[in-house]
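During the no-cost extension, the postdoctoral fellow (Dr. R.K.) reprocessed legacy sequence entries with the updated structure-token encoder. One reprocessed record is reproduced below for audit purposes.
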Amino acid sequence: MTNTHSEPPTSAPAGRPPSGRPRRRTVVAATAASAALLPLAGGTASARAAEAPAFLHGVASGDPLPDGVLLWTRVTPSPEAVPGSGKGAPVAVDWEVAVDEDFRKVAAHGTAKAEASADHTVKADVRGLAADTAYFFRFTAGGVHSPAGRTRTAPAETSEAGNLRFGVVSCAHYEAGYFASYRHLAARDDLAAVLHLGDYIYEYGHEEYPLKAETVRTVQPLHETITLADYRVRHAHHKLDPDLQAMHAAHPLVAIWDDHEFANDAWSGGAENHTEGPGGEGAWADRQRAAKQAYFEWMPVRPSTEGTTYRRLRFGRLADLHLLDLRSFRDQQASIGDGDVIDDPDRTITGRKQLDWLKSGLSSSTARWRMVGTSVMIAPMAFGSVPAHLLGPLAELLGIPKEGLALNVDQWDGYTDDRRELLEHLRDQRIDNTVFLTGDIHMAFANDVPVKAATYPEDAPVATEFVVTSVTSDNLDDVIHVAPDTVSSVAEAAIKAANGHVRWLDMDSHGYGVLDVDAERAHMDYFVLSDKEDKGATSEVRRSYRTLSGTQRMEEADGPLGG
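Re-encoded structure tokens follow.
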């Protein structure tokens, strides 16, 4: 990035909504209009690339700081320079950040270079901005402007923010439905950021998951993603989706990866959905390297010093956000029922360095709330007397055996020593107000998190956990092909009976969460979609839960948030 310049923002122009937020009408309308021109069915941008240079994949921002934010786009400089091709000459791309939607009051500007070596993606890590302030941004190449986006910086580290509100999503399989959750989040103007807790893309080929009869639309490439070009094309195809483009244009994203950004049940040395060797899918190290490179090229994510997604963001004195990478350093998943391996203190889900980093950060935090983004559930899960006809579908979703053993070895349940060490640290250091934010399992939960679930509630919880359901990926009613709520009430009751720390769960719905934190409580509204297979799906609040400051316990809220 070169030619960077920033200036203090001036006062907001007349007509700006309260709290300094830009009007979203222009941003969302422009994004929708540009997205409507994209050849979504074909999966490539070659038709529109004839008008190159072009910004076919939208704009995005992410990882907000008190004085800056990371901006992202992808430029198509020439017709042949489609994603994954490795073709196309370098092109200079100007970027600018303004306090007004007409870009008359520019606060920062600069120039970056888009090159084939990075798939012509562009990142600008802008600094020198004002804290807790809304901005517009855009890119320009060859005299062509990108769609405009809006973003927001984080509160100053010493500020006493009144409240923070985040969208929370996970598990967005392209072929399983439409991204209506993203559309609903894009329409809001009250979010500091959107947290994506993993499975932003899936590696499967066309009709591999879900199966042919259940596929709603077609992903590109048609085959499983293995090479760098494959992962680039898959990311690019997702970013042609108009609802995803609208969300990225409306709010900064804070994201971590889970397994499907690589392959199902990924671990440091392989994955369940990877066949090692020359007769299979090549070396895992090569595939992992390719997936990570494409991820950091195509996502508005600032990599940590180790080239992973574990990092920490601060939002004034109100909240810290500790983001984990639970795929790069973990040992291979144990066999289900192998208790000696599962409890082995030498096995890890985080890696020693990351676990020490997390414990240290939680201990030293001076924020009111310590939020931890974890891609897999940390609360223990047992299943007791779930009816036999539901054990098979639950096993498929949650990784438990069909005999009903109470374990998911891909979650923290499969790495009990790391979990014990972390939770005992919270207890022994008397660290209050730790809230885990989780995706992965395509269901919604509100959990207390005790050190020993077997003796709960006598063993008091040391944290709480909000688990959001999937944007589209299959859950219970999808797997057994029944209408929502047809059989889930039986399974949900059995799970709650065997897991007293599970305060609420929803096994059928798809949607998103809206998390609001203030000095008194952390509150989650669980939104559900009317139909994930409907482009125009509506959403409504299914349930609201909260944890009050100092309690480490979950309770049902009186009602949903306003806004």
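Confidence is low (pLDDT under 50) at residues 1-44. Residues 284-298 form the longest helix (15 residues). The remaining legacy entries will be reprocessed before the final report is submitted.
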